[in-house]
Amino acid sequence: MTRSIFITGTDTDAGKTFVAAALLKRAYALGLTTAGYKPVAAGCDTTAEGLRNSDALVLQSESHPSLSYLEVNPIAFEAPIAPHIAAALEGRSISLAEISQGYQHLYTQHPDFLVVEGAGGWRLPLGDQRFMSDFVIQHKIPVLLVVGLKLGCLNHAILTREAVLKDGLEVVGWIGNHIDPDMLYGQENIASLRDMFPEPCLGIIPHLKGHQDASDFLADADAYLTT
């Protein structure tokens, strides 16, 4: 049976792709088949094959069996701006039906672990008073919160968790990602999150450069992945 999870972050650049790739890699190492899905991506390069987003390419590389790029990222925009603004500039609209179609296509392939990565934060606008969270609510996908560890992260984490719960969804856990190497009292902030959130911490990732492998820092996620 496929286990799916939606990864949201406390903000843009909280480390969603970094965490998604690490979870997919760890799941595959545990013997699970994996699929990564980034339904909407803004900030893409123009290639001979079409628009390509670096985050989506990372998820594609960690999907086993392999997936085509369009299966991983069906909706892409060149401009690195809010997707609904990019869509308006191109005279396009973002279709919730297309997002759902892509998700259902991957789900029916029955991977053991299907990771859906959002864009921006929980309430990402898609235009016409629609949000990425509407898709997650529709499919009742459990949510994993990536907390970008920096000044202000406690407020962002608390508000994001509250919004997910008020939308009637399960928060399966959270992962802390040190995006600010100079954050003061980082351990105290992590301790505060542990105290305030009843959901488990599935890992704390130190500040890593580039695309260093973070999967070894997510050992606490193994129980979730294998039960």
What radius of gyration results from the CA coordinates?
Answer: 17 Å
How confident is the prediction overall: mean pLDDT? 96
Indicate the structural class: alpha/beta
Main sheet: strand order: 2-7-1-10-11-12
Main sheet record: 6 strands, parallel
* Assembly context of the chains: single chain
Shape: globular
Number of helices: 9
Please count the beta strands (DSSP E, at least 2 residues each).
12
Strand percentage, roughly?
Answer: 15-25%
What is the N-to-C order of secondary-structure elements (H for helix, E for strand)? EHEEEEHHEHHEEEHEHEHEH
Question: In percent, how helical is the residue content?
Answer: 25-40%
Please give the alpha-carbon distance between the first and last residues: 11 Å
Low-confidence stretches are none
Layout of SSEs?
Elements: E1 3-9, H1 16-29, E2 34-37, E3 40-42, E4 45-47, E5 50-52, H2 54-61, H3 69-72, E6 75-77, H4 83-89, H5 96-107, E7 113-121, E8 125-127, E9 130-131, H6 132-139, E10 143-148, H7 153-166, E11 171-177, H8 186-196, E12 201-205, H9 222-226
Parallel strand pairs: 1-7, 1-10, 2-7, 3-6, 10-11, 11-12
Antiparallel strand pairs: 4-5, 8-9
